Amino acid sequence: MKERVVFCWSGGKDSSLALYKILNDDRYEVVALLTTCNEHFQRVSMHGVRIGLARRQAAEIGLPLDVIFLSQYPSNDEYESKMAQYLESKKTEGVSAVVFGDIFLEDLRKWRESNLAKVGLRGIFPLWRQDTKALIREFLDLGFGSILCCVSDAYFGEPDVGRLIDQSFIDALPLDVDPCGENGEFHSFAFKGPVFAAPIPFTLGTKVYRPIRPSGNADSICPPPAQNRSPIGFWFCDLLEA
After folding, report:
1. Burial of 47 (0-12, 13-18, 19+ CB in 10 A)
2. Could you tell me the residue range of the domain that residue 176 belongs to?
3. Under 8 Å between Cβ of 12 and 189
4. Which of 68, 95, 124 is the last residue before a domain boundary?
5. How open is the CA angle 76-80-81, to the nearest 5 degrees?
6. Does pTM surpass 0.90?
7. Exposure of 138 by Cβ count < 10 A (0-12 exposed, 13-18 middle, 19+ buried)?
8. 21 and 81 share a domain?
9. In the chain, helix, strand, coil percent, each to 5?
10. Do the domain assignments include residue 132?
């Protein structure tokens, strides 16, 4: 019997590649995708992608999308409380684990596993400790397509956000930027690939700059910023449903 799991879905490239691996692993049955959404802005946390596009992704994947709505400036307590409530409900449906696309952030993994243990679940990390250069090559070789929806101003500027992630982008990355953006250097929106029945149509909208808020709690539920430089804020590209 396959283990029933929930997949923690950001809509980006690492999430898409991890989902591809789980869907092709006979040990698991993905019962739902799970994303967190800023209730005020109606956008996926950190990535800034409209929730309508995340729902379109899920429709093309063929899985239900469960959404946890967070306040405009959520605290750790709010996130953990709402996540625990959701996971307790999924346990009654036979779910025993949650899948994440994390690659090498030890503190983030420990935090996730600690929260899961409180409700008697475990974490699965199909990309864990794999070489990020190899992962991004695999992502592109499989035919996935993704676009930069959010970039840290420690490494990138306005012209970069909204750019296609392709080999030329990877080749031009500074040496201190992880090829998968695992340190928070950039986030992406996946719009085509083997997990989707059809490409997700979208157009590029306005580019917006958002400085980092000086509140520790608001940022603590997100992956840490890039380690080698200190970002002041992030550029976002509004992606519009076509």
Report:
1. buried
2. 143-241
3. yes
4. 124
5. 115
6. yes
7. middle
8. yes
9. 30, 30, 45
10. no
